[in-house]
Amino acid sequence: MCTVTFIPSRHQVCFTSNRDENTLRARAIYPEVYRFSTGKILFPKDADAGGTWIAVHENGDAVVFLNGGITKHIPNPPYRKSRGLILLELIDSSGPFDVFQSLNLKRIEPFTAIIWQAGNLYECRWDGSAKYVVQPDHSVPHIWSSVTLYGPEVIARREQWFREWLNEHPDPTREDILKFHQFTGDGDSRNDLRMNRDGETFTVSITSLQIDSSGSSIKYLDLRTGDKIISELNSTKTQPVLK
User: Fold this and answer.
1) In contact, 124 and 131? CB cutoff 8 Å
2) Tens digits of per-residue pLDDT, 148-185?
3) pLDDT score for 236
């Protein structure tokens, strides 16, 4: 929930998420397809609260979360519901962006939702009191970093790494993207993409979500165990992924 990239290509889009967590948090349940009221949804599950940070619906919509909204906040629990469960409310619908706009988020901890709906990209932020929405250009790559872990200077530095990497990889493969998420940085382990802050908070997994007209797949790297898991979900769509 702490570093996310979006990379479109001619026939598909790829979201990749680095999950940075406290060492005391339980290991996630590997990605599986679950049945919900609106259809099948593929996601890795948070073992503590039962939610997730990244999910894709069989209709091709997807949601990826980052911790924090506009600026770093001071946690003020108890919260009404975990953010991971809010993500599942968004994706278990005919339109996650539409649900975000109408959903009551009072007493929900701030978050940023990157939403892919019907070939459109949305950046949706909740700061604890208000919602903010922008619609980034879905035809070009983007990177986001969590404001709870990374200040403006570090976020800008990561954006520069991303631009430099794209110059060297104008048409990256999924493996290229996964390597970017694992190995990019300047040697500062606290702020590299695969981060480690004194062994207490570190990147525990990397999730690559690829969506095309035939369906979706998640490639999940558990950095604690070295396990690599691939799960797939067939699409119910007939239209292309990109408009």
Assistant:
1) yes
2) 999 999 999 999 999 999 999 999 999 999 999 999 99
3) 85
How far, in Å, CA of 198 to CA of 232, rounded? 35
- Three-state DSSP at 94 gives coil
pLDDT of the residue at 1: 76
- Is residue 89 within 8 A of residue 103, CB to CB? The reply is yes
Spatial distance between the Cα atoms of 204 and 108, rounded to a whole number of angstroms: 24
Q: Is 223 exposed, middle or buried (0-12, 13-18, 19+ CB in 10 A)?
A: middle
What is d(CA 159, CA 141) in angstroms, rounded to the nearest whole number? 11
d(CA 167, CA 230): 28
Per the structure block, which two tokens stand in for 50?
A: 């039962």
User: Per the confidence metrics, is the pTM higher than 0.85?
Assistant: yes
User: Is the backbone peptide bond immediately before 78 cis, with ω within 30 degrees of 0?
Assistant: yes
Kindly report the backbone phi and psi dihedral angles of residue 166, in degrees, each rounded to the nearest multiple of 5, phi listed first: -65, -35
Instruction: Please state, in angstroms and rounded to a whole number, the distance separating the CA atoms of residues 38 and 97.
Output: 15
Cα 10 from Cα 25, distance rounded (Å): 38
Residue with tokens 């986001």: 144
**Strand, coil or helix: 14:** strand
pLDDT at res. 36: 98
Amino acid at 173: T
Regions of the chain with pLDDT less than 70: 238-240, 242-243
Length of the chain: 243
Task: Catalogue all structural domains in the chain, each as residue range(s) with its CATH number.
Answer: 3-234 (3.60.60.10)
